[in-house]
Design a protein that fits this description.
This protein is of the alpha+beta class. It is 32% helix and 27% strand. The chain contains 13 helices and 18 strands. The strands form six sheets. Strands 10, 11, 12, 13, 16 and 17 form a six-stranded antiparallel β-sheet that branches. Strands 5-6-3-8 form a four-stranded mixed β-sheet, with no helix packed on it. The termini are far apart.
């Protein structure tokens, strides 16, 4: 009698152990994929394996990643995140220009200078009638310009002349700012009669202009040459030109924008021509040889158009923030898709329930699918910034708000049963909204972000018009009775609406504000 023992068979193949496995269920066999076979052989791309080729592919891959990021703000975050201390950049600005810096500036900005007579502009080829008109305008506006300059000086002396807290440089800059603003206002007022499009321009006071880019063709430093000579695999690239990162910051007194841009001096085809590029001087030396400075900083570019920054040390900081809010109006009206900010025209709300008369048969109205028009046409009357944990305050005026909605009603109105539904219309003239709220800050790798934690709105309405239409199956008597009640008791209806309307407006506007603030760090609109 023999005893049979259970044994395990072990196989080895190229150092791998293959053991029989027990399965609780049958495993399906892989099906052959007909797509893996082609009529012609397909070979993978043959890539150059040199260090220069690998670096080029890595750089191109990185550029594709940046291109795939949707917004400017997110692109800057992705660029800056790997650099905790920022990039070593050459600092260019509009105030400090070393001696003999023109060749470097032309090389770094790809700029060509041409004679005034070559500009393709009618101003250089004006006929005699145009020249006569221009001379007449200069004569007529000369007195206004002189008055504007005199007024600017008097205003400056009255407002800042004896302010000991301002340095001489700050006073000089403030005087220049006041003169430029008044001259700009004078010229636009004088020209608008003959050039109607000037009434549509947008003026940015103290805008921030910034740009970040890299420049090639610069000779390597002595340390880089020495380092390359010490490595066998870099001996062929000892004197290869390097790239330098450049950061420009500019602070003009004002910038003028219009929806219709000026005609370009050169077309895209002309600007891309090799012959034009040959006119640009090549500056191979390090920018520090001319006196430019370098600094470690994160890349910053022109901020989104809807952001109008203010300076911390601006003595008129409140005025600047009021201008920044009003600067947002066209973008609030149209919406900002890149940060998923919806348009406020119309501003939409869900529903409001109003109990207009008391008693078991009291008249009750429910407004649904409300659309508010005119919220983007606002003016900031006053503002108080948040300091030391205190709430911020602002008073905002809106000339007219129009509300359109569907409505349903129930109960008795003027002894007439008035249950039904239709369309509700109202116009609020002379709306003044008082806003108070608190904000908090959160630190992120790319900056400090604000968040509106609480927002309260108090509404004051000067004139009220209300009516309904398409109601009670077009019953004329009930429709006229309801409109008579709304016409005589409009203030009563507004008083009934106010608590809910204020609460809903505060909630919706708080969400809009936070949707904007979560995409824009404080450093973009509150700068040093």
């Amino acid at each position: 009698m023999f005893a049979l023992k259970r044994s395990t068979t072990r196989c080895h193949y190229l150092g791998q152990s293959l053991e029989p496995k027990r399965f609780l269920s049958a495993q399906p066999q892989p099906k052959s994929n007909s797509d893996e076979y082609t009529d012609k052989p397909e070979y993978p791309e043959i890539l150059e394996l040199s260090r220069e080729a690998r670096m080029k592919r890595e750089k191109q891959s990185w550029h594709e990643q940046i291109k795939a990021v949707p917004t400017i703000e997110e692109k800057l975050i992705k660029i800056n995140m790997p650099r905790y201390y920022g990039f070593k950049t050459i600092m260019l600005n509009s105030e400090e220009n070393p001696y003999n810096c023109l060749p470097l500036n032309q090389h770094y900005t790809r700029t060509v200078f041409e004679g005034y007579e070559k500009l393709p502009n009618t101003a250089t080829k004006a006929d005699e009638a145009s020249k006569t008109q221009m001379e007449s305008f200069v004569k007529s506006v000369s007195a206004n310009i002189q008055d504007a300059i005199e007024y600017s000086n008097e205003f400056f002396k009255e407002r800042y002349g004896y302010d000991s807290s301002l340095s001489a440089q700050q006073k000089d800059k403030l005087l220049g700012q006041i003169i430029v603003e008044n001259l700009n206002r004078t010229l636009i007022n004088s020209l608008s009669a003959d050039a109607a499009h000037l009434s549509e321009i947008e003026i940015d006071l103290n805008p921030r202009h910034e740009a970040f880019w890299s420049v090639g063709g610069v000779n390597p430093s002595k340390d880089a040459v020495k380092s390359r000579k010490g490595r066998d695999w870099q001996k062929d690239t000892v004197y290869m030109p390097v790239e330098r990162l450049v950061q420009y910051t500019g602070e003009p007194y004002l910038a003028i924008r219009h929806s219709l841009p000026l005609a370009p001096i050169k077309s895209i085809e002309e600007s891309s021509s090799v012959e034009l590029a040959k006119k640009i001087p090549i500056y191979k030396f390090d920018a520090r040889t001319l006196g430019y400075k370098t600094n470690y900083r994160h890349a910053t570019n022109i901020p989104a158009e809807y952001i109008k920054p203010c300076k911390r040390n601006d003595p008129e900081i409140v005025k600047c923030f009021k201008g920044s809010l009003e600067h947002l109006r066209p973008w609030l009206k149209a919406g900002i898709p890149e940060i998923e900010l919806p348009s406020v025209e119309p501003f939409k709300m869900n529903s409001l329930s109003l109990q207009l008369t008391d008693g078991p048969q009291g008249y009750k109205i429910t407004l649904k699918n409300m659309e508010v028009f005119g919220a983007s046409d606002f003016q900031v009357k006053s503002m108080k910034l948040s300091e030391n944990g205190e709430p911020f305050e602002a008073k905002i005026a809106m000339p007219k708000l129009r509300i359109e909605s569907k409505y349903t009603s129930s109960g008795v109105l003027l002894i007439i049963p008035a249950s039904g539904g239709g369309e509700f219309h109202s116009i609020f003239d002379g709306v003044l909204a008082k806003l108070t709220g608190k904000v908090s800050t959160s630190e992120k790798p790319d900056g400090t972000y604000l968040h509106v934690d609480a927002l309260n709105i108090e509404l004051d309405v000067k004139n009220i018009e209300m009516s309904i239409s398409k109601a009670f199956n077009n019953n004329r008597i009930l429709t006229e009775a309801t409109n008579l009640f709304l016409r005589d008791n409009g203030r009563l209806v507004v008083d009934a609406m106010r608590p809910q309307l204020q609460k809903k407006l505060a909630h919706e506007f708080g969400q809009l504000a936070n949707q904007l603030l979560k995409h824009v760090p404080r450093e973009m609109f509150y700068i040093d």
